[in-house]
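FW: tagging you since you asked about this chain on Friday. Here's the raw sequence from the shared folder, copied in full. Didn't touch anything.
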Amino acid sequence: MIAAEKSPLAPLFQSGVTSSAVNDFSGLRAKAMNEKTFKKIKDLPTTHLLGTGTPMCAGCGGLEVVKEIYDLIGEKTVFINAAGCMTLLAVYPFTPFRGSWLYTAMASAPAGAQGVRDALDILLEKGRITPEEDLEAVVLTGDGAAYGMGLSSTSAAIDRNLNFIYICYDNEGYGNTGQQASAASPHGARTATSKGPHGYLGHKKDLFAIWAAHRPAYVATVTGAEPLDLARKIEKAGKIEGPRLIIALAPCPTGWGFDPKETVEIGKLAVKTGIWPLKEYVDGKVTHTVIPSRRLPVEEYLKLQGRFAHLFKPERNEALLREIQEQVDVYWQGS
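HL: got it, structure written out here
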């Protein structure tokens, strides 16, 4: 673990000198990002930036995604972390991040990113840091903030054309406080606040469409179980300026009720069944980046998770299973 006081954030706001806090490896990584297209698994980074020994839950899909993304964007970053599961990645005075980390309330991470970006731009304008010393402002939130509490501040940041990357690790519930239902919870899932025989009666909010309606620079969905697709999207986002928004499916063994060793398989099944479409928005156009050649039945994904166990026993809930399948079918028929 890395002591938080050694973060480049302190000199950024004190002396404006950040070069001593950023090693040459970051520059090489940034150069590679600008020159390289990820074609095979062997093209992915082999040196991992996020420190080990974090207090996150075993098999955390959110941590899986953050590790992969951090390896790609590099350590010349300031993570603006809204309250949530990933808050555990920085237990004062230590953090597993090699760069800077800033904690905010659940609803205000994009506003925090605005302050960070403004400060960096002022230092650049005054010549106190060089473009090579500039940092990327990266918001990190769970679905509780992204879909609900922080949606207004995100909308405002997009409207202001804030130059930042927003990463939502979507574990489809308020995972840090016991997996209560959120606006991202899927229809039929049992949560801490939806324990009836039919589970959550609402429907998952289409955050991708909401963000795309703002016409930002970039929006994409990813999952850690598809690392090549994720790498290509992060590479593309790194070459664009403006609001860049990433929604990452984050399978949660604790909240969803599955063995931590199944995290990757759950993520793959989410794509293969079509429940989690991998797509991106660029210049007003939505493109699916991975299209299942033969979609598996959604129950192949659902039956591995305790939060959907009530759909299969003591008796199969054919009506609800059919409803969930039809929702997925309708989506792909219109795509």
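FW: The chain has one domain: 2-333.
HL: agreed, and Residues 109-125 form the longest helix (17 residues).
FW: great, closing this out.
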